[in-house]
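Record 1 of the preview.
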Amino acid sequence: MEIIGASLDGFPWFLAYLATAVALTLVYVVIYTWATPHDEIKLIRENNLAASLAFAGSLLGFCMPLASAIAHSAALVDFIVWGGIAIVVQIAIFFLVRLPIPKISERIEKGEMASGLWLGAASLAGGLLNAASMTS
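->
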């Protein structure tokens, strides 16, 4: 019984990090959907696969550095700071992806799969590099 009690000593911290990660993810979703000209949720509800690919890649691209920040943070406040940096980096990736394809949002709205896949893959790649950079 003592082993189980010792194992659960970290449970409050687990809950704190999980709740903070969920909150940061919700903040990211709100900021990302505000920053993009197209309405991701509406398009996904309309079964637009290009929008779904782009948004899923972006969400995963954000959650990878968030997971890295949890693993490498010294404290919850440290995690929140790195989570904020992950938000900024992922939003910047969206704007960088628009450089070679300026009308990417319009193309995603039309359901053009190549544009959705490009944005999703670029978001994942950026998130992976962001996550790998978060080491201590």
